[in-house]
Amino acid sequence: MFARTDFPHQKLMLRESILEMLQFAQSGAGREVILRLGQRHRLLNVKPAHYAMWLDALCQALAKHDPKFNGDLEAMWRVAMRKGIEVMIADA
Asked: Which residue numbers in the chain have pLDDT < 50?
């Protein structure tokens, strides 16, 4: 899926999308952005099952790079990200 990916650009897009997802989870703001993100991912053939794998990978990366990461933080990340993921896959 990432054969022709511009990884410096992808890194930026990942950062922005995580910030959007966190903002949405916290306040509900930016729903339209999350919907567009879901549409874009569907065009790229991202399936609902891929989001669970992505969330697992995100939590693994957080655990690896944040010495303060723990089970409580993981649960909070998962809840926050799932709110946006549910919106993204609603029309899938």
From this structure: none
